From TrEMBL:
Protein name: Aminotransferase
Keyword Transferase among UniProt keywords: yes
Domain Aminotransferase class I/classII large: 16-363
GO molecular function: pyridoxal phosphate binding; transaminase activity
InterPro entries in UniProt: Aminotransferase_I/II_large, AspAT/PAT-like, NHTrfase_class1_PyrdxlP-BS, PyrdxlP-dep_Trfase, PyrdxlP-dep_Trfase_major
One Pfam family here: Aminotran_1_2
Length: 373
């Protein structure tokens, strides 16, 4: 967020920012969603809705899981939330108590850690580097002193983009079931992958898991603030009550419009974005390698490259701010994602325009000699 603020200031003063820091698509919602939102303004009151979401959207999401993964979902298993961020808060409150231990990968999405700690949970981070393709392993779980209350797996993950293999996820899901650990599968980057690995829905492996989805990433709708969970029935009542008390309901206009996000027309438009991300990814992979930045996470999916630049700096907060000042290129320092090792890493988001990738690499090439510390 500090980088975003500095980048916004730089844009105001210089007008030359290339934003590779923020983790969001640079495109609007698909056209059918925009049309549906306009129609919703005319046709609906847009007051409060049911606290866990409107039935037609639940039906649409349940149907999408059948079409996309062959997983049968009862619409009553779907809880619509205010972004996946809203889903995490509700689920953590529903499933965990103060003092419970929840395990996650490091590097990982920082809000899991921050929210869990704010709720009084103990967060145990597993160091997941290139040797485990930045994903937790069964061996790491088996080495824990006792089974945790929860385990969060994100695949594709943020900040590295790696996808966990189906067999590895199946083994972890079985271990969680056996040990009474709630597996929380963050699948919000599903749809954005580059063909080397499966995107497995955890519900195709274990119905005891919680699956998290969102319209923010693949669906290109970050600011619409809509996400969802698939939850085992035992959480139904408590999530219902938490949802109505915490947020009353997710945004009404977003819910009505999002029904159109799952149509073939929308999916075709969104797949077009993924093609651009693939081109951008290849440009950055090649360009960064040519600049000697070669220790890059595999980026099987999502739209991030996580780069180890320990040969350039041991303080990427400072390096990123000097990069911004020298070139207008904004990248995210790794420290948020990994408080232990992130000071030597940066994350670059390649969801923007392809021309921006070329421009960023050109500016980086010219500035690199001046940025050495
Ligand atoms: C892995 C992961 N999970 C969850 C979120 C939260 O997304 P949202 O609340 O927009 O659905 C993000 C946002 O960047 C993320 O990277």
């Amino acid at each position: 967020m500090d980088v975003w603020k500095a980048a916004a200031e730089r844009q105001r003063t210089h007008g030359d920012v290339i934003a590779l820091a923020a983790g969001q698509p640079s495109t609007p919602a698909p056209r059918p969603v925009l049309d549906a939102a306009r129609a919703a303004l005319d046709q609906h009151v847009l007051g409060y809705t049911e606290s866990t979401g409107i039935r037609p959207l639940k039906d649409t999401i349940a149907d999408y899981y059948q079409r996309r993964y062959g997983v049968s979902v009862d619409p009553d298993d779907v809880v619509i939330t205010t972004g996946s961020s809203g889903a995490f808060t509700i689920l953590f409150l529903a499933a965990f108590d103060v003092g419970d231990t929840i395990v996650m990968a490091r590097p990982g999405y920082p809000a899991y850690r921050n929210v869990l700690q704010a709720l009084g949970c103990h967060v145990h981070q597993l160091d997941c580097g290139p040797d485990t393709r930045f994903q937790p392993t069964l061996a790491q779980l088996e080495a824990l002193p006792e089974p945790p209350a929860g385990l969060i797996i994100a695949s594709p993950t943020n900040p590295t983009g790696t996808i966990i293999d189906r067999a590895a996820l199946a083994a972890i899901a079985a271990w969680c079931e056996h040990n009474g650990t709630l597996l929380i599968s963050d699948e919000i980057y599903h749809g954005i992958s580059y063909g080397h690995h499966d995107e497995t829905c955890a519900w195709s492996l274990s119905r005891s898991a919680a699956v998290i989805g969102s319209v923010s990433k693949y669906f290109s709708m970050t600011g619409w603030r809509l996400g969802w969970m698939l939850l085992p029935p035992r959480y139904r009542d408590v999530t219902n009550r938490l949802a109505s008390n915490l947020t009353v309901c997710p945004p009404a206009i977003s819910q009505h419009a999002a029904i159109a996000a799952f149509t073939e027309e929308s999916l075709a438009e969104l797949d077009g974005h993924v093609q651009r991300y693939r081109v951008n990814r290849d440009i950055l992979l090649e360009g960064l390698n040519n600049l000697g930045i070669t220790r890059l996470a595999p980026a099987d999916g999502a739209f991030y490259l996580y780069a180890d630049i320990s040969h350039l700096t041991s303080d990427t907060i400072d390096w990123s701010s000097r990069l911004l000042a020298a070139t207008g290129v904004a990248v995210a320092p790794g420290i948020d994602f990994d408080t232990a090792h992130g000071h030597t890493h940066i994350r670059l988001c390649f969801a923007g325009a392809t021309a921006d990738m070329h421009e960023a690499l050109g500016r980086l090439q010219r500035a690199l000699p001046r940025l050495a510390t």
